[in-house]
Amino acid sequence: MTIEYATQYRRASQIPPDPGKPYFIERGMGDRALLFTDLFTVYAGGEQTEGTFNFFTCEGPKGDTIPAHLHPDTYEVFFVTDGAVRLFVEDTAGEQYEKLLTSGDFGFVPKNCPHAYRIERHGSRIVGVAAGPGGTFERFFENLGTPVEGPDLPTAPYVPERSKFATVPQRYDVRFLPDHQWRTP
Fold it and tell me: pLDDT, tens digit, for every residue of 21-37?
């Protein structure tokens, strides 16, 4: 059995709301949120790490490329534990990279670099870590998306209200690039 805490984001969470407290999260638990078709599970965030890093997973069905975006002050890593994920990244000089990551592969996205991904196989899972001087962005997923209870991947996508795009991303060091074009396939 795990301890549940009330947090500013959820009525019940296995993640303590303050730093300096050891904790454990059992498989299938964590703070889960659906954004479009992807399920994000947060295991550690800014509150626990004093704003130094976050740790989360992303899983979902084979689907479309997520919207291009960047994090002005946050570095992000992608480690694929299951399936296949195509990562698109553009460096600050404008050179674009595209790589199919499969189980055991790693991708690094420096701060201020446009990027996106596309899940290529059903059941794919990404382990993500983000860190930087701007803090962490893990609560972006549930504030733009919607919190999810239970261990299963929802079957219906969640598309946020248009008004949320005007305020939520900037609070979490996310800048969407609606006109960005990937020159790679």
Answer: 899 998 878 999 999 99
